Amino acid sequence: MKRALSVIIVFLFSVVACAHNPLSARYTLVSDKNACVLEISLSQDGINQALINTYGKDFMTNMDSKAFKELIVNYIKEHFDLRIDNRKLELSEGGIRLGGHQTDLKFVLDPIKDNIKIIEVAIPAFKENGEHQSIFSYTINSLHDRAIISSRNDYQTVFYPNGAPSRLPWLVGGFAGLIAIIIAIYLIRRKRVTA
C-alpha cells in the first residue's frame, strides 16, 4: 500500500513539474479576412535563461520592468522569421504580459490573403538554452496545421497549405530523358550491327 501511494505521489509530482516546461514555447498564428494575430506563450524561466545567455546577467541586473519587457519583445523579433509566399511578415504592433510562470506576447499583423502556396517559419529563439522546442501552429481562414520546431529541423519548417508542389514536371522530364537515352543506345547498337 505504501509503495503504491509512493508511486502515485512521484507520478503526480513529475506531471506537475512538467507543466511549465522552460524548454518549450508556443506560437499561434490566427488570421481571417479582417485581422491577423500572432500569440506567443513562453516559459518565464526559459525566457530568463535565454536573455541571460544572450545578454549576460550583469546587463539585466538593474533593469526596470519596462526595459525588461522591451528586451523580451526585441529578442523575439530578432529570433522569429515568418514568410508567406516569400513575403516577410514583420512583427510590429503588439503587447506583452509578464507572469510568474509564463509570459504572453501578442502581435497584430496584416490580414493574410487566400490561396497561400508556402509558409516558411524559422524560430531560432531559445536555442541557446539547449534542447528547446517551439510549437508553431496556424489557422488561416479554413487552413490549419502545426509543427514542432527544434534542433532536429534546424529551428525551421515549411508548410504547403494547399498541398506540396507537384513533382510531375520533374518526373515527366526524367522519364522523357530516360526514353531518349534508350533510343540513342538502340540506334547506336543498330548502326554497329548493320555496319
TrEMBL record:
Domain of life: Bacteria
Membrane in keyword set: yes
PROSITE patterns in UniProt: PROKAR_LIPOPROTEIN
Keywords: Membrane, Signal, Transmembrane, Transmembrane helix
Signal peptide start-end: 1-19
Stretches that traverse the bilayer: 168-188
UniProt name for this protein: Lipoprotein
